[in-house]
Specification:
Layout lengths: L1 H25 L24 E17 L4 E17 L3 E18 L2 E20 L3 E14 L4 E13 L4 E12 L8 E15 L1
Length: about 200
């Protein structure tokens, strides 16, 4: 009996001594957490149109005379610059703008040059439109001052345009305007209408 108790005690000591080793061997392996994914790059989804902007445009000017200039007209490429300010009320945007086009449109009658030209157009605009986020659809109207070799005149214009914010600051636009001039050079009856379509690039500050 004494030998049996001694053997049992020795076995208990052996199990106690080797227990931590078995315990460590049976523990589940520790898995390090995966590194956190970097946050996604911000995507511009449109925003505030409020602020000053400026840029340049290129387009086409097409003029047709009436009254004493009936049958006289011409069209050619125009280049210009513009600057303005918009205020975004949330859904609606209003603003004002000045722009200038260098036209150099040679006038013709019955397909033959007449030695006259439209040289430039200045415009003072009021603009108002609806804010779709990245896109602004707007109407515009105001006064235009034309300079020609026949003479100058201040007339009116109206039109529509659409602007798209490619980034928070860079804007591309297309704009159509219809102008009406009368009494060029102060001569009654020397009237003309002109249509312009321009593609514009602007930077909002």
């Amino acid at each position: 009996m004494k030998n049996i108790l001694s053997a049992a005690a020795a076995m208990a000591l052996t199990v106690a001594a080797t227990g931590p080793a078995f315990s460590g061997a049976l523990d589940e392996p520790v898995i390090a957490p995966a590194p956190a994914a970097p946050p996604p790059a911000p995507v511009y989804s449109g925003g505030d149109w409020t602020g000053f902007y400026g840029g340049a445009q290129i387009g086409n000017l097409d003029a047709d005379g009436s009254g004493g200039l009936a049958g006289v007209g011409g069209d050619d490429t125009s280049y210009g610059v513009h600057a303005g300010y918009n205020y975004d009320f949330g859904s609606w945007v209003v603003g004002g703008e000045l722009d200038y086009d260098d036209a150099s449109v040679d006038l013709e009658s019955a397909g033959a040059p007449i030695g006259q030209s439209i040289d430039s157009v200045w415009r003072a605009k009021l603009r108002g439109g609806y804010d779709f986020g990245r896109t602004l659809l707007y109407g515009t109207a105001g006064l235009a001052d034309v300079d020609t070799t026949v003479g100058g005149d201040t007339g009116d214009f109206y039109g529509i345009g659409v602007s798209y914010k490619a980034t928070e600051q860079f804007i591309v636009s297309g704009e159509y305007l219809k102008h009406s001039f009368s009494s060029l050079g102060g001569t009654p009856g020397l009237d003309s209408d002109a249509d312009t379509f321009t593609v514009r690039a602007s930077w909002q500050f």
